[in-house]
Amino acid sequence: MSGDSVKNKYTVLLPTYNEKENLPIIVYLITKYMDEGNYPYEIIVIDDGSPDGTLDAAKQLQSIYGSEKIVLKPRKKKLGLGTAYMHGLKYATGNFIIIMDADLSHHPKFIPEMIKLQQQENLDVVTGTRYVGTGGVYGWDFKRKLVSRGANYLTQLLLRPGVSDLTGSFRLYKKQVLENLVSSCVSKGYVFQMEMVIRARQYNYTIGEVPISFVDRVYGESKLGGTEIFQFAKALLYLFATT
Ligand SMILES: Nc1nc2c(ncn2[C@@H]2O[C@H](COP(=O)(O)OP(=O)(O)O)[C@@H](O)[C@H]2O)c(=O)[nH]1
Ligand SMILES: [Mg+2]
């Protein structure tokens, strides 16, 4: 942190829906890498009434790691990822926010790299990218790869954001920046991630990229479906027309 008078704190927002098996591992790995790097942090788990008992697992983790480190902000029912971030953000005490999936697709070992890049260049946003350098995707079938690549390609073509991975959801934000972005984004669901980057560009925020390897979930199910793809196309056209 080279002489900063304020010590940075990182809030990790972990939205969960049926992640009972994954949560203990992801929490362990986050604590490992944050402790190793000596970064002050908290993890906010936003569980949306998972029927598999994810919240009970989260409570156990809280009793192990302490309520300073693990903060629980559950909601009664499944209300979607976008609003889960907004909900968690309200309780964040860090000046930096990390958002990531809880299904082990995003490895916490990349967090220190994101933090270092942010510090070097005082960036507003650092995003993990699967589509540059050593980044990559593992375990997806052809259809899923095509959808992700296609979404990125179309968006690059129409909106020219200058960021290689638009639909990824492994990112580090300055808290104020995330608050501004969240309140100006109109879309819900997967497309939310793309809109965040487009808006960030619109507001001239600085964005850096860290190559990440994305590994498909082993436990549980993805929530990507036909409606999400349709939503994406709709939002892309909306952004094309309005930004
Ligand atoms: N709180 C909350 N979390 C969700 C919801 N939908 C998905 N998640 C979580 O968001 C992350 C990404 O979801 P996932 O289904 O893995 O998306 P995919 O990897 O793009 O297929 C995971 O940690 C999920 O548990 C939701 O409605 N509410
Ligand atoms: Mg996933």
TrEMBL record:
User: One Pfam family, short name please?
Assistant: Glycos_transf_2
Source species of the chain: Diaphorina citri
Q: What function is annotated for this protein?
A: Transfers mannose from GDP-mannose to dolichol monophosphate to form dolichol phosphate mannose (Dol-P-Man) which is the mannosyl donor in pathways leading to N-glycosylation, glycosyl phosphatidylinositol membrane anchoring, and O-mannosylation of proteins.
Superkingdom = Eukaryota
Q: What is catalysed by this protein?
A: a di-trans,poly-cis-dolichyl phosphate + GDP-alpha-D-mannose = a di-trans,poly-cis-dolichyl beta-D-mannosyl phosphate + GDP
Q: Which GO terms describe its molecular function?
A: dolichyl-phosphate beta-D-mannosyltransferase activity; metal ion binding
The name this protein carries in UniProt is Dolichol-phosphate mannosyltransferase subunit 1
Which InterPro entries would you find in this protein's record?
Answer: DPM1-like, Glyco_trans_2-like, Nucleotide-diphossugar_trans
Q: Which UniProt keywords apply?
A: Endoplasmic reticulum, Glycosyltransferase, Magnesium, Manganese, Metal-binding, Transferase
Q: Which family is annotated?
A: Belongs to the glycosyltransferase 2 family.
Q: Where in the cell is it found?
A: Endoplasmic reticulum
GO biological process terms held by the UniProt record: dolichol-linked oligosaccharide biosynthetic process; GPI anchor biosynthetic process; protein O-linked glycosylation via mannose
- Write out the pathway annotation from the protein's UniProt entry: Protein modification; protein glycosylation
